[in-house]
Amino acid sequence: MTVNSDGKIELPPQILEEAADWLLQLQETPQDDRLRADFEAWLAASGRNRLAWQRTQRAWQAFGGTEPQYREHWENGPRSGAGVASATRPMPRRSAWRSRGMLAAITGAALCLFAVFLPSVLILLRADYRTATAESRTVTLADGSTVQLAASSAIATDFSGNRRRVVLLEGQAFFDVVPDQQRPFVVDANSVTVQVLGTAFDVEISDRLTSVALEHGSVRASVDSASAAPPETLVPGEMLLVDTSTGAMRKQSIALEDIGSWRTGRLYVVNQTIGSVIEQIQRYHPAWITIPDPVLARQTVTGFYDLRAPDRALEALVEPYGGKVHTVSNLARIIARF
Fold this sequence. Notes:
By secondary structure, the protein is an alpha+beta fold. The protein is built from 8 helices and 21 strands. The strands form 5 sheets. It has a 7-stranded mixed β-sheet, with helices on one face. A 7-stranded antiparallel β-sheet has the order 4-5-8-11-12-15-16, with no helix packed on it. The longest helix has 16 residues, at 13-28. The chain is elongated and about 80 Å long.
C-alpha cells in the first residue's frame, strides 16, 4: 500500500467509488439480503476495501447523513458465511444524480475538513469583531467611524497613536468613515490597501479577488506587490476588482444603490464566476456547499441573488448552466451537472 507524506494510506479512486456505490445501495435497500451478502463478500475481498468503507462511512456521517447501514463494519470484518462467489454479481444501477462524482466529492471534502476550518480558527484568534453565518453587525470604531460587517466576516483594528487601520480578515464590510485630515483611514484587504479621509465604501475579499466599491467621497487603492499596477483612485459609482494572485486591477461602473446591496439581503454581482458567487452565498447558508465541477465553477454570471433564501439563490445561479443543487443533508449541498 502507498503511504502519503502524512502517514496516511492512499487508496485508488476506483475503490473509493466502489465504497460509495455500496453506501448508496445499502441506504436505499437495507433489507435486501442478497445485496448484503454481495457487500460482505466485497468487504472481505481485501483490506483496502474495508479501509475505503470506513472512510466513506465516516465522511457521510461527517456531512450529517443519516446513521449509516451496517455500521458494525466500520471496524469489524464481515459476518462469517458470506459467499465470495456472490461478489461477482454486478452492482445495481443507481439513479442519475447519485453518481460516483457526488460521493467522491462528499468523501474528499469531509477528509479535508480540518484544512478548511483551520484558517477560520486563526481568523478567530486575530479578529476584534466578527459575525457568524447569516449574521450582520454594525460596529462603531474609536474615532466614530462605522463598519457594517456582512455574514461570516471579521476585522481587526489598530487605532494606536496617529493610526486608523482596519484589516478585513474575512468576508465583506461597508465602511462609513469620519473625516480626519491628520489621520488617514486605511483598510487592508488581502494585499489590497485602501486609503481614505472621509467616505463610504464597500470592501470584499475572496480566495482570488478583492473588490472595492465607492458610494461617496474618494478612495485610493493599491496592491502590495512589486509587479502590481499603479494605484487607482475611485470616484462614486466605481468598483475596483483586484486579482490578488496577479495584482491585475480593473474598474467598472456600478449603480450607487447596488453598492453594499447585501445590507438589504440582495447579492449583486457583475461578470463573476459561479465559484466566487457560491463563496459569497456560503456566508448566508448554514450548510457546507461544494462544487466539484471546475468547468461549471468557472462560468461567469451577472445578476441579483436573494441572500435571505440561499438555497433558491443557488438554484437560480446554476440552473441556467445545467447545474443542480443536491441536498445531502441539512449540513451539506453538492452542486453538479448530474
